[in-house]
């Protein structure tokens, strides 16, 4: 319970914020509960402590991308998945992919399909297959890709080619400046 210990709530909030970066809902809830108890100046103090810590101990891009992937997956696999959660998951999964986390590609494909973003779904599926299908084990995904591409109109095909080019240019493996 911490009885008799000097309370440093801004420092505690900083630690809860780091813990909440993972996929555990309980850490996020604890962070929100503590933040609700703090004044605005204490919250600002916690943010300053967090920035100071990150300056001394930076998180590399791939580690950050993995954290973003976990956030996206936590939203995807929530018990009651709604449109808003899918939109939020899409944001975090894209952030993970653009940070270099290739494991996000298949999740992005499935999420885009659920959100009826077929062109973007096809782009992420193409990238998934290009990255992870060296040995031909993903035959089912190859068939899904063929069916999806064949269902496109001319306009969708042109949009797909443009989006593929745009997204590939943003990926750190294709653009060292993005890394």
Explained architecture:
Helices cover 72% and strands 0% of the residues. By secondary structure, the chain is mainly alpha-helical. Helix 1 crosses helix 3 (40-56).
Topology:
Blueprint: H1 9-19, H2 25-37, H3 40-56, H4 61-76, H5 83-98, H6 104-114, H7 118-132, H8 139-150, H9 154-170
Helix pairs in contact: 1-2, 1-3, 4-5, 5-6, 6-7, 7-8, 7-9
**Average pLDDT level:** 86
Major sheet: size, sense and barrel closure? none
Radius of gyration from the alpha-carbon trace, in angstroms: 20 Å
Total E-strand runs: 0
Run of helices and strands: HHHHHHHHH
Estimate the strand proportion. Answer: under 5%
Distance between the termini: 44 Å
Number of helices: 9
Helix share of residues? Answer: over 70%
Report the principal-axis shape: elongated
**Low-confidence region ranges:** none
Structural class: mainly alpha
Main attributes of the structure:
179 residues; mainly alpha
Brief account:
This protein has 179 residues and is mainly α. It has 9 helices and no strands. The chain has helices at 9-19, 25-37, 40-56, 61-76, 83-98, 104-114, 118-132, 139-150, 154-170.
